């Protein structure tokens, strides 16, 4: 911590490095098209490190990661945080154990969000890969991933999400026609969850195709 900033700027730089490396990999996988997607990590008990809005996620530098408080207000900078900052900070505010939130726009995530929007959820059951989620010990567990209607009003979207947050072992959700949010206690866990969601959604899409 220094005299002028209410967070540790060295820690912000450290998290920026971890974010940039991981985001670049997700970008190269094709999950962040056209400046979409946003990413964050908990900086301390009042602040998060998050991507600046509108940046090409395959070409981020340290200057593209900024600090915000848990109300989404920039702290120690005059940059514009992700338009979806509130969806990240609501999770850090509510769950002290959450350390990382990843939001991507892959084709599978987006198509699945449209197909399952009418049901309001996607159901996973019988997949060995469900054990990739923290707390799941068997393929027999039933996982229900919420699908929310999209809106440009982040306060409204955050309120919809808030209504599902009581569920134990919720590690992500879809937004209709938009993409996926996934999180974990640290970057490694959030990525594992994100990749597991991507795989399971691809399986569900394939199952629909072969059943037609
Ligand atoms: C061009 S993508 C539309 C906005 C979006 O969904 C997204 O994930 C990126 O927004 P940000 O403000 O974080 O760049
Ligand atoms: Zn988005």
TrEMBL record:
Database matches in InterPro entries: Aldolase_II/adducin_N, Aldolase_II/adducin_N_sf, MethylthioRu-1-P_deHdtase_MtnB
Class II aldolase/adducin N-terminal domain: residues covered: 17-205
Keywords: Amino-acid biosynthesis, Lyase, Metal-binding, Methionine biosynthesis, Zinc
Pathway recorded for this protein: Amino-acid biosynthesis; L-methionine biosynthesis via salvage pathway; L-methionine from S-methyl-5-thio-alpha-D-ribose 1-phosphate: step 2/6
Cofactor section: Zn(2+)
Documented EC number(s): 4.2.1.109
Catalytic class of the enzyme: lyase
Key word Transferase present: no
Taxonomic superkingdom: Bacteria
UniProt-listed NCBIfam families: PRK09220.1, salvage_mtnB
Protein name in the entry: Methylthioribulose-1-phosphate dehydratase
Organism: Lysobacter soyae
């Amino acid at each position: 911590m220094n005299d002028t900033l209410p967070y540790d700027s060295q820690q912000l730089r450290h998290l920026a490095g971890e974010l940039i490396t991981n985001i670049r990999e997700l970008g190269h996988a094709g999950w962040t098209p056209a400046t979409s997607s946003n990413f964050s990590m908990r900086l301390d008990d009042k602040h998060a490190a998050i991507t600046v809005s509108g940046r090409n996620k395959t070409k981020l530098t340290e200057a593209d990661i900024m600090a915000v408080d848990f109300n989404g207000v920039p702290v120690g900078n005059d940059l514009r945080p992700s338009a979806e900052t509130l969806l990240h900070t609501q999770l850090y505010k509510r769950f002290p154990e959450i350390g990382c939130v990843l939001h991507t726009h892959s084709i599978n995530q987006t198509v699945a969000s449209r197909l399952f929007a009418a049901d309001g959820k996607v159901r996973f059951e019988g997949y060995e890969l469900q054990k990739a989620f923290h707390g799941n010990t068997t393929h027999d567990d039933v996982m229900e991933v919420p699908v929310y209607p999209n809106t440009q009003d982040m306060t409204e979207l955050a309120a919809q999400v808030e209504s599902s947050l009581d569920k134990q072992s919720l590690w992500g959700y879809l937004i209709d026609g938009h993409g996926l949010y996934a999180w974990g206690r640290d970057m490694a866990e959030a990525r594992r969850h994100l990749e597991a969601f991507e795989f399971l959604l691809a399986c569900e899409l394939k199952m629909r195709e072969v059943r037609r």
